[in-house]
Fold this protein.
Amino acid sequence: MLRKSLLCASLLLAGCDPDSKQDADSFRQGLPSKQMVEVASPGPDGQGLVAAYTQGQTAEYYFLTVAAAASINGGTLAVLNLVEEIVKHPPSSIQGDVAVWGPHTEALSPTTWKLTVTRTDDDTYSWVLAAKAKIEPDTAFRTVLSGSHTAAVDADGERRSGYGSGQFLIDWEKQNSLPGNEEDTGVATMEIRYARTAPDAVASVETDFQFEGADGTPTSASYRFKQAPGMGGELDYVLRQDIDVDPTRSQLEKLSIKSRWERSGVGRSDIKLSGGDLFGEATINECWDSNFLSVYYAVSFNPAVGYGAVGACGSFNAAVYSTL
């Protein structure tokens, strides 16, 4: 960045624009795109979970991996789609380092939105999406989505379109207080951290949920996703909740799942259940082929239901459990 600044200082009359980061497009680049936070999965669209422990059938934990990726995408892509739709329009105002879109209400919408983007450094921005019911006063705006984003730059200090890193927080409780969103999802907050900084860089997405279990007990879940360009990927999923069905035992158990897959679709999941009211650990291991068919299955607490040889797991012949 220093290199570019010195070049602009010495060649100002040759076309370097000192206001180039004060226009609407520069503020749009200060926001995450859906592509930056989307979590890939081992294959095509999932078809839901199945309880099939059968060699040659579609692998259960392939389905679970796809479902885990979908649960992250379902929460993040919808809200970022809203942000992208908002910034397709010209901003209502740009004053110094602050650009504002709205307040705006769609013709038939009961909700009014306002997006504020603030440049905090040369290529770093903070942003806030606030909303209220259309009939409420402006003092009723509440923050439903907020975050910070750093646009990626190349060696010459030029921004890489579509690349960057940052974090944002979705406040589902405030989101669900808006008209038409009254259905309680059980999720209180969802924090996302992401990095896609260059075409050849490893992409990562981290997500943490806070929500209530079916019985009202506090529950949390964490996801960690990594993928190198043109390669397979890996996804960690850890859930902490009262899994034990005995009502006299209420401690939180830990369910961890680590899935790894190659670009071909070949993959493996290693699952561990531990802690809480359990007296020990239980593990499950499953491998699938490029057609997502189960080729290896092992259960520590019931070896009789296992099948296949670990050699069928290819490059994933050793178990690797999540360290979250």
